[in-house]
Write a structure and sequence with these properties.
- The complex is a heterodimer of chains A (402) and B (271).
- Chain A contains 16 helices and six strands.
- Chain A is mainly alpha-helical.
- Chain A has a four-stranded mixed β-sheet with strand order 2-3-1-4. In chain A, strands 5-6 form a two-stranded antiparallel sheet.
- In chain A, a hairpin with a 7-residue loop joins β5 and β6.
- By secondary structure, chain B is α/β, with parallel strands linked by helices.
- In chain B, the strands form two sheets. In chain B, strands 1, 2, 3, 4, 6, 7, 8, 9 and 11 form a nine-stranded mixed β-sheet that branches. In chain B, strands 5-10 form a two-stranded parallel ribbon.
- In chain B, α9 crosses α10.
- Classes of the chains: A mainly alpha (402), B alpha/beta (271).
Chain lengths: 402, 271
């Protein structure tokens, strides 16, 4: 009987170890997958895959960067001089235009004559820049010069200020507007949530009667249980028009609206952690303070709050973590404009919102897909730093001693 | 007891033996495919068709991986997607199932009724910033767009913006419903939605593609007679190899009964 019991215990122990092992392995695999997919972006060409850019061989241009290519095809840059060439007007040419210039017979069966026709067009116009599929790009033609493509560089990604992942010929993957947008919204969310959360935490741990506490605590915990899409919908229908009207803005979907929603969502975390920290203040310290003649309020802000300060900092950091990773609510209320944030009352786009909105339609395995995974890696690194710092901060409390 | 086991196993056998098909892809086409498959299954009880969304890109990559039989897409298959399929030794067949018209919508209080393609291009690329420039009030224009990778976004860019990029930092919403909601509560807003989504909370603009000579109102009749210019095809893609399996369903979609469903869902029929 006893032996049987021991075997059963062993088995349970084994199962527990196994489940722990499986969890760590799963996390490890997810991280490896994330980084493997993400870092693939830097092996993708900076012109859409399978395509190349051709110019007339009389053109002096040797190389164009993605931003220049985008501006040329948007007709923002219209003279070769602006990108280092001769003083001639640029003539952008997209592949589809060939079909309006030549009939199907002239292009031959299975488009066999297409490369030849394309090279005719390029030879005819000295200032052309043509965006063609590699399959039909004229090869070994004296009049055609294929511009070399480079891979997407670290500088393009980490220093880029424009996020246009589906732009053709040259998609732009600029991290900065998204990263700054995320931090911008999160930081303001914490600035709003901190005083409120701290107030509620102080009230709950020091001032609330047992009765009020019994009602308020579950209510706050309930706040954490509401699905974020509900917050998002509430934000879109109630907060957005409210912000727009009360501040007289042209649009209600702003970084500020996102911060408000995130502040509400981060409140439960901040309140619970901060309250726990304050409750942990030893009775002896409080009583000593009161015995010295301090009032209740003086005790709170001279003794309890300083004692709990590291717990409160941990609460803030955890709240930031919650805000940075939040997806759905932010996606619905910030307007998702991928511009560098300049003011609190303009639309911004965050990293999680970008991933959620774009992953569904991005061609699997393509550069756009990989860039979204790379965004995931960055988000992962940020949240990891946040939780490590929360850990470090909350540990300090115990080493300080009483 | 034995009877139950017997009947369950027979049911399982018929289920496995039945022709199961999967349709996956564009969210725009989701209501269409669902309705089509429902009535097709009613007519052919031995077949099962499962329809799921996820986006045009998801559908086509599922076709590549072989996890779906039919991909639904609100945009034409991209060149590199086609190449990938070719590399995997798969050739796909394309079927146009219906057409969808995109309506340009503004806040109901907006005085502007007509816009030309050139004006729309200016608005969405950020060159035209105030409604005053196109005959409206002195109000900032706030253009709304769909997400960068949605088929609707790409089509609007191709047709209206002539492949130029949208202005840097355009507001982009995750779904058509969100666009309607935002436009109905923002005075200077302008955006684009599928014809089926038009309602009284927003006002549809009459569009001209011939530099202002004729302006057409977005409506099913105008889209059908090609008076209204912003119309796009909706596609089904399937592998040539599985043609035998999916052909009956595709034929059904193109049949009169299938096309009737197309107009019920709010899209435009082929004929």
């Amino acid at each position: 009987m006893r032996r049987l019991k021991r075997i059963a215990e062993r088995m349970v122990e084994g199962l527990l170890t196994l489940s722990g092992g499986v969890t760590s392995l799963a996390i490890l695999l997810i991280i490896i997958f994330l980084f493997k997919e993400g870092l693939g972006l830097f092996n993708s060409p900076n012109v859409e895959k399978g395509y190349s850019l051709c110019v007339n061989s009389s053109n002096e241009i040797v190389r164009l960067n993605p931003l220049q290519i985008k501006n040329i095809f948007d007709y923002e840059v219209s003279n070769w001089q602006e990108v280092g060439g001769a003083d001639e007007e640029i003539m952008p040419f997209r592949f589809d235009e060939i079909f309006s210039q030549y009939s199907d017979e002239e292009l031959g069966e299975d488009y066999a004559l297409l490369p030849q026709r394309l090279s005719e067009v390029i030879a005819k116009h000295p200032n052309i820049i043509a965006f063609l599929p590699q399959k039909y790009t004229p090869k070994d033609e004296a009049s055609v010069k294929v511009l070399p493509t480079k891979n997407i560089s670290f500088a393009d990604f980490f220093g880029g200020k424009e996020w246009l992942p589906t732009a053709t010929p040259s998609p732009l993957y600029g991290l900065l507007p998204l990263l700054l947008g995320t931090l911008w919204v999160s930081i303001f969310a914490i600035l709003i949530a901190l005083p409120l959360g701290l107030g509620v935490a102080i009230y709950l741990s020091e001032l609330a009667t047992e009765h009020a506490g019994k009602f308020l605590k579950p209510a706050i915990e309930l706040l954490a249980g509401i699905p974020s899409v509900v917050y998002g919908f509430f934000g879109l229908v109630v907060l957005v028009p409210l912000v727009q009207r009360s501040l007289n803005l042209p649009v209600g979907e702003t970084a500020f609206t996102g911060s408000l929603i995130l502040a509400i969502m981060a409140l439960p975390t901040i309140i619970t952690v901060a309250e726990d920290a304050m409750r942990n203040t030893p009775r002896a310290m409080r009583e000593a303070s009161l015995a010295l003649g301090a009032t209740h309020w003086q005790t709170i802000y001279k003794v309890v709050v300083p004692y709990a300060s590291s717990g409160i900092s941990a609460a803030v950091v955890l709240g930031v973590g919650r805000a940075i990773g939040e997806t759905m609510a932010v996606l619905m209320v910030t307007g998702n404009a991928a511009a560098m944030p300049r003011s609190l009352f303009e639309s911004v786009r965050t990293i999680p919102a970008t991933i959620a909105a774009e992953l569904g339609e991005a061609p699997a395995g393509g550069a756009h897909y990989q860039s979204l995974f790379l965004l995931g890696c960055i988000l992962f690194v940020i949240t990891m730093m946040v939780s490590i710092s929360a850990e470090v901060i909350s540990k300090r409390q115990y080493s300080k001693g009483v | 007891m034995k009877k139950i086991i017997l009947s369950v196993s027979i049911a399982a056998c018929t289920l496995l033996g039945a022709q199961a098909q999967k349709v996956k892809g564009s969210d725009t086409m989701l209501p269409l495919s669902q309705k089509e498959s429902e009535s097709y299954m009613k007519a052919n009880p031995s077949t099962t068709i499962t329809v799921t969304g996820g986006g045009s890109g998801v559908g086509i990559s599922a076709l590549l991986e072989g996890t779906t039989d039919i991909a639904q897409a609100s945009r034409k298959i991209k060149f590199d997607e086609k190449q990938k399929l070719q590399e995997a030794g798969k050739s796909v067949k394309e079927i146009v199932a219906a057409y969808d018209a995109l309506a340009v919508v503004v806040h109901p209080s907006n005085k502007v009724i007509n816009l030309t393609r050139e004006q729309l291009e200016g608005i969405f690329t950020g060159k035209i910033k105030s409604w005053k420039e196109v005959g409206g009030d002195d109000l900032k224009i706030v253009p709304y767009s769909r997400e960068t990778s949605s088929g609707t976004y790409e089509f609007f860019k191709e047709s209206v913006l002539k492949n130029k990029n949208y202005m840097n930092g355009i507001m982009s919403m995750p779904a058509t419903g969100a666009i309607i909601q935002s436009i109905s509560q923002t005075k200077g807003a302008v955006g684009y939605v599928g014809l089926a989504y038009l309602n009284k909370d927003v006002k549809a603009i009459h569009v001209s593609y011939d530099r202002g000579k004729t302006f057409a109102e977005p409506s099913v009749a105008n889209a059908k007679s090609q008076v209204y210019p912003i119309v796009r095809p909706l596609y089904y893609y399937y592998e040539v190899k599985s043609e035998k399996l999916v052909k009956p369903f595709m034929d059904y979609v193109l049949s009169d009964a299938g096309q009737k469903i197309v107009s019920e869902v709010g899209f435009i029929t082929l004929k």
